[in-house]
Amino acid sequence: MAGNVLNFYAGGNTARGFVSLFDSSLQGLDRVYILIGGPGTGKSGIIQEIGDELASAGHDIWSIHCASDNGSLDGVIVPALSVAIVDGTAPRVIEPRLPGVVEQYVNLGEAWDTARLGERKSEIASLYAGIRNAYERAYDGFAEALRIHDEWEAIYIGKMNFQAADELTAAFSRELFGDRKRDRKSRIDRRFLGAATPLGAVDFVPNLTEGLAKRYFIKGRAGSGKSTLLKKLAAEAVDRGFDVEIYHCGFDPNSLDMVVLRELGIAVFDSTAPHEYFPDRPTDEIVDMYERCIEPGTDEAYAEALDDIKERYSARMKASIACLAEAKSLHDELKRIYAAATDFGAVERMKRRILREIAGLSAARG
Predict the structure, then answer these.
(1) Burial of residue 77, with CB atoms counted within 10 A of its CB: 0-12 exposed, 13-18 middle, 19 or more buried
(2) Which Gene3D superfamilies match (predicted)?
(3) From 69-83, 88-102, 137-151, 348-362, the region with the lowest mean pLDDT
(4) DSSP strands (E only) in the chain
(5) Nearest to residue 218, comparing CAs of 150, 159, 277, 295?
(6) How far, in Å, CA of 25 to CA of 21, rounded?
(7) Residue 59: its pLDDT value, please?
């Protein structure tokens, strides 16, 4: 029987630049294979193939997707074996704890024909410069979109009933936890449930909440307290000793989009665009922050201003996504150059070596 696959992002193209949460997902592992090498040398292929093979063997895996290349993976983790294989090239930030003991570097650059790459040095340099420029423009655009989003939030914050929000949070916390408490330190996993990608906004909410007994869909508007509610629930879970998956917003990583408490079978998530969902199970429940915490009639009273903000925000987001698509197109050209100069037989041997070592780790665990 194939293992379950959990999909998420550990890095994101955000309004605060590229943000990496890799270290959180790699915490406590006994072995981390860090793949290094240029684009097009097979890093994502190795990660995908090893993940598929281990899942087919019955292992549950975590697939870490690439925010800058739809369809590619940045890593795969096998929790039961305490092992991971990740792409260690920039802009991902992976801090080794015990190099050579836990972290093992696998240099795919050993499979390059460096003389062949040298013949295209100026072309490679130009493509790298173009990619950097495209990302800078994307991040500048996302930052401007965030400033516009702040205008959006300010309208609703000005009409917020903070006492009602506090009472809702307290009641919600009692409903989730009751008097349950565990005498141990929580594990906190910080991730992204979605990302801004070259193809637009992508999320894995259905996959991440599959099989959970209860899902709470938090509805509302920008500035209506959704992220604050999630932060308080996450803090309460930690205080009570429960493990918690904290999913940061792929647009503004200082905000939260979802909290999952797998021990309790519960997910609470911001169910508004660009990850808007509606109940489709008997146990699903909507919590409407606008209805419960915002002065009635706010949407209507500020309709003209809100339409202007939405239009400017959408235009800026669309332009920034176009920059990500431009960077992806240039990166694809770079991948073709490196792929043509790579000995994939050598890459396959590296993959097989990793699989043999993982099999050894599995055997040692019984």
Answers:
(1) buried
(2) P-loop containing nucleotide triphosphate hydrolases
(3) 88-102
(4) 5-9, 11-14, 17-20, 31-36, 61-65, 73-78, 83-87, 103-107, 188-192, 194-197, 200-203, 214-219, 244-248, 256-261, 266-270, 285-288
(5) 277
(6) 7
(7) 95
Phi-psi category of residue 39: left, alpha or beta, with phi > 0 → left and psi -120 to 50 → alpha: beta
| Amino acid, single-letter form, for residue 100 | G
Q: How many helices (H) and strands (E) does the chain have?
A: 11, 16
293/111 Cα distance (integer angstroms)? 59
- pLDDT number for residue 362: 80
Give residues with Cβ within 8 angstroms of 88, minimum separation 6. 34, 35, 36, 94, 105
Rounded-to-5 percentages of helix, strand, coil across the chain: 45, 25, 30
Neighbour count for residue 45 (Cβ, 10 Å): 16
- Please state, in angstroms and rounded to a whole number, the distance separating the CA atoms of residues 10 and 192: 6
Angle between helix 344-364 and 43-56 (nearest 10): 40
pLDDT at 101 (0 to 100): 72
Amino acid type, 208 = L
CB neighbour list of residue 236: distance below 8 Å, 6 or more residues apart: 173, 176, 177
DSSP state of 152: H
Model-wide pTM > 0.85: yes
282, with CB counted inside 10 A (0-12, 13-18, 19+), is exposed
**Reported confidence tier of residue 191, pLDDT bands at 50, 70, 90:** very high
| Cβ atoms 338, 40 nearer than 8 A | yes
Three-state secondary structure string covering 219-266: ECCCCCCHHHHHHHHHHHHHHCCCCEEEEECCCCCCCEEEEEECCCCE
- Amino acid in position 290: Y
Residue 32, classed as helix, strand or coil, is: strand
- Say which residue the tokens 């994502």 belong to: 44
- Count of residues making up the chain: 366
